Amino acid sequence: MPQIRFMTLSRFIIEQEKLHPEATGELSKLLHDLSLAAKVISLEVNKAGLADILGFTGDSNVHGEDVRKLDMFAHNMMFNAMDHGGHLCIMASEEEEDIIHIPAKFKVGKYVLLFDPLDGSSNIDANVSIGTIFSIFKRITPDGKPGTLKDCLQKGVRQVAAGYIVYGSSTIMVYSAGHGVHGFTLDPSFGEFLLSNESIRIPQKGKIYSINEGNYLYWHPGLKKYIKWLQEEDNDSERPYTSRYIGSMVADIHRNLLYGGIYMYPADSRNPNGKLRLMYECNPMSFIVEAAGGRASNGKQRILEIKPGTLHQRTPIFIGSEYDVRMVEEFMAKEEKTFSPGKKR
Ligand code: P6P
Fold first, then answer.
1. Residues 224, 191 share a domain
2. Pocket test for ligand 1, best of 119, 262, 275 (most atoms within 8 A of CB)
3. 15 CA to middle of ligand 1, Å?
4. In a domain, 343, yes or no
5. Which end of the chain has fewer CB within 10 Å, C or N?
6. For ligand 1, atom 5, which residue shows the shortest CA distance?
């Protein structure tokens, strides 16, 4: 009788903690609180045709993007799940322009949480997979006082943990606290995340590329040559690759993490910094992919080495199997002199 390994996220976190004597248990409790938020958000995301949640609030977020009710629900759920545990000194969210302080009535902790509560929200009404992304740092300002923007604006290499939850055919939470990348699938029948992918490793080379080819005209010439190269026939390098683009970064990267491949959101002649946000999208996803043996850059520099200037800054991103990210970097380097990202129109 094959032994069924009934490993819940909570039990796994505790067992992982035992492996590291220096652990105080605070990060474990933080991750546990995050999983609670994920369960509630998953419940709402998976309710079909719920009129009062789907659709637009009529508001727009800090970036002028239409905010959907589920975005704000997810943002509020993350805040309400995380503000009172005593583990955080400050938070930041894609949905809030400024940093988010811990209410004065709650204890201030030593960690910093940045999150995108619901990435891919333009897909909500079409029932396409969407996701929550989170990034965790240790504070760098003195303990005991409220956290500051300085605590948030740290290089990605300083993250102590990061992860995402993808709400798809099932709800999966993937995280790393620096000791491997592990995936847990939510069993809705009793509301537990069960270990489903232990020690995830991304294939060194993939056969899938993910990019919005509708922007081809505006791309770096080296990127244009790379994509055309991927579409040529060559058995040795397993070309042509397969194009898969969901339009939800978390879902695209999750698939490529398991199967191998590359996700790209480049700068182009209209958007000199691309579209995706460094602090709560690119840094956490890069932390995960690198921990799984992959690579993540802005085309020239490792994402995790980018020194942040502002909370919502954007960065181009090329992320996935090491071979594939290195290949696109080479194609772009050869054409560097012939491209300069234009000013945003
Ligand atoms: P485009 C979703 O809005 C998102 O931030 C990512 O999740 C996704 O990969 C990308 O933007 C899609 O953007 O311009 O291709 O529609």
1. no
2. 275
3. 36
4. no
5. N
6. 120
The residue among 6 and 117 whose pLDDT is bigger is 117
pLDDT at 4: 59
Compute the distance between CA of residue 49 and CA of residue 236 in angstroms, rounded to an integer: 47
Residue 100's CB is within 10 A of a number of other CB atoms, namely 22
Confidence of residue 342 (pLDDT cuts 50, 70, 90): low
Residue 50 pLDDT class (50, 70, 90 cuts): low
Residues 261 and 292: their CA atoms lie apart, in Å, by 13
3-class secondary-structure state, position 131: strand
Ligand 1 centre and the CA of 306: distance in Å?
Answer: 21
**Closest to 284 (Cα-Cα) out of 127, 118, 155:** 155
Which residues face 162 on adjacent strands?
135, 176
Express each pLDDT in 7-49 by its tens digit: 999 999 988 888 777 778 888 899 999 999 999 999 888 874 4
**CATH code of the domain in which 120 resides:** 3.30.540.10
237 with 153, same domain? no
Residue 247 C-alpha to ligand 1 middle, in angstroms?
5
Neighbour-count burial of 84, counting CB atoms closer than 10 A to its CB (0-12 exposed, 13-18 middle, 19+ buried): middle
What is the domain count for the chain?
A: 2
Q: In this structure, which amino acid lies at residue 250?
A: V
Greatest Cα pair distance in the chain: 63
Using a 6 Å cutoff on CB, does residue 248 contact ligand 1? yes
